Amino acid sequence: MPVPILRTNRVPAANHHVVELVLENGARLRISEGHPTADGRTFADLRPGDHLGDARVVALRSISYPYAFTYDILPASDSRTYVAGGALIGSTLAP
Questions:
Q1: Buried b (16+ CB within 10 A) or exposed e, 72-82
Q2: Bridge partners (DSSP) listed for residue 18
């Protein structure tokens, strides 16, 4: 069920690396290595075959992030999680 976004944050990202994930559904996500998953791991901890909610990771690699900023969101939900590309993601922001 969709919920409003309570807060967003923009963080400078010079010399930053992200994990590029390919999910079984074909979605490709680029998320900071230290970003939390919905179950408390980080994206740097993930391996092929792992799940993010119902989405299965089929490939991943660490890549340089070419943009000036990363962005964080805090959804208005008790779980502080959201869905991106069909995967369940944790929020980096405290309520």
A1: ebbbeeeebbb
A2: 32, 63
Q: How do residues 16-51 score in pLDDT, each as one tens digit?
A: 999 999 999 999 999 999 999 999 999 999 999 999
Structural domain spans, the chain:
5-90
How many whole angstroms from its chain centre is CA 68? 17
Fold classification of 5-90 is Endonuclease - Pi-scei; Chain A, domain 1 (2.170.16)
Q: What is the CA radius of gyration of the chain?
A: 13
Tell me if residue 44 falls in helix, strand or coil: helix
Quick one: tokens of 82?
């959201």
